[in-house]
Amino acid sequence: HVDNINDALALLRRFLDWDRALRRLDELNARVEDQALWNDPKAAQEVMREMEGTVERSIQIANQMLLLAKVEQRRTQVPMERCRLDRLAREAALELSPLIAEKDLDFAIEDSEALFLGDAWLVGELIRNLLSNAIRHTPHGQQLGIRVGSSGDVVTLTVWDTGGGLSDKQIEHASQPFPSSLSHHGSGLGL
């Protein structure tokens, strides 16, 4: 029950973040309507930049909540199917390849056929989340990779990078949706 309470509190914090962002947009909108602001191009540019960031953050929060609702629904309603972890990993890497190229990362994928019973969409989201985090936190021009394998009934997925890693506190909260101890970038679904 503690996990459910923590999840509910995390979601409430996210709603409050959204509410604050929307209130900030109202404040910024009122400033935009003030004609005196437009006589000062530098101040106007600053307000527009802050407004853009607030809009992006609001959209990100809404998308996080919608994705989390979809994940929760699928976890309880979608039947298990035979999936290939190696294919899902390759698909995620291909989808995120523009981000990998943008940071000029030395990307490697090592895989072998790895079958499992599960929800391909949900596992694909997990892989995209892990890989996206790794891309974001790996310094420009460094190394990043995915390793997929199987041994008997066990399949493994490793996303590795040469980024700074997670602190002990971040590791402790990494599997929680919307962890407040982490930065506000990313999907917020937790690892």
Descriptive report:
This protein is 58% helix and 16% strand. With 191 residues, it is of the alpha+beta class. The chain has a three-stranded mixed beta sheet. The two termini are 20 Å apart.
Query: How much strand?
Result: 15-25%
Radius of gyration: 20 Å
Shape: globular
What is the number of helical segments per DSSP (H or I, 4+ residues)? 6
Order of helices and strands: HHEHHEEHEEH
Indicate the structural class: alpha+beta
Q: What is the number of E strands?
A: 5
- Low-pLDDT runs: 180-191
- Which strands sit side by side, in order, in the main sheet? 2-4-5
How helix-rich are the residues, as a percent range?
Answer: 55-70%
Amino-to-carboxy terminus distance: 20 Å
Mean pLDDT: 79
Query: What about the largest sheet?
Result: 3 strands, mixed
Question: Could you give the topology of this structure?
Answer:
Elements (H helix, E strand, L loop, with lengths): L1 H32 L7 H37 L3 E4 H11 L1 H6 L3 E5 L4 E4 L1 H18 L5 E9 L2 E8 L6 H6 L18
Parallel strand pairs: 2-4
Antiparallel strand pairs: 1-3, 4-5
Helix pairs in contact: 1-2, 3-5
Give me a quick take on this structure.
This protein is α+β, with helices and mostly antiparallel strands and 191 residues long. It is 58% helix and 16% strand.
Descriptive keywords:
191 residues; alpha+beta; 5 strands; disordered C terminus
